[in-house]
Design a protein that fits this description.
With 186 residues, this protein is mostly helical. The protein is 81% helix and 0% strand. The protein is built from seven helices and no strands. It has helices at 2-60, 65-80, 83-107, 109-113, 115-150, 154-158, 175-179. It is rod-shaped and about 90 Å long. It comes from Bradyrhizobium zhengyangense. InterPro entries: LemA-like_dom_sf, MamQ_LemA. Belongs to the LemA family. It is a single-pass membrane protein.
């Protein structure tokens, strides 16, 4: 009779651990989803700003067609990307194209002095900072989730419940550019 109670107690503890692990992993998964939605909102704002920026630059540097086309192509690719890995890759291409577009202002002093361009460039800079913060929050949520599915006792149940490792919002090839110390020349 006491063996039956012990077995029942072990089963109850295992069921409690499974429910507890499942609920924690669901909460962590929801946090990852919410964090990616936050990144997505910031990226959509940037996508909406780009046509205005391109139109402003067109007026001053219309013969820079290749750069303008690259920005539009990268924007369209970024808007159609799905999931963190695809979005990350597409956004890295878009960031590079935008960098080349902003660099055009150095070659065109009239463009650099244009109030509309300055406002759009300022908004873009502000959005880039917000995107960076959103990416950090997303990557933190992914790190917590990935750690959660690998820790005991959740690791025993994670695979059974369909919880799999999630990808970080990676900087990709631009990581070396971001991590490189800026060069100061006098």
């Amino acid at each position: 009779m006491s063996t039956g109670w012990i077995v029942l107690g072990v089963i109850v503890v295992l069921v409690f651990l499974a429910f507890s692990a499942y609920n924690r992993l669901v909460a962590l998964g929801q946090r990852v989803g919410q964090a990616f939605a936050d990144v997505d909102v910031q990226l959509k704002q940037r996508h909406d700003l780009i046509p205005n920026l391109v139109e402003t630059v067109k007026g001053y540097a219309s013969h820079e067609r290749g750069t303008l086309d690259d920005v539009i192509k990268a924007r369209n690719s970024a808007m159609s990307a799905q999931g963190p890995a695809q979005v990350s890759a597409a956004e890295n291409q878009l960031s590079g194209a935008l960098g080349r577009l902003i660099a055009l202002s150095e070659a065109y002093p009239d463009l650099k002095a244009n109030a509309n361009f300055q406002q759009l460039a300022s908004e873009l800079s502000d959005l880039e900072n917000k995107i960076a913060a959103s990416r950090r929050f997303f990557n933190n949520a992914v790190q917590e989730y990935n750690t959660g599915i690998q820790q005991m006792p959740a690791a025993l149940f994670a695979g059974m419940f369909g919880f799999t490792k999630k990808d970080f919002f990676d900087l990709g090839t631009s990581r070396t550019e971001v991590e490189a110390a800026p060069q100061v020349k006098f």
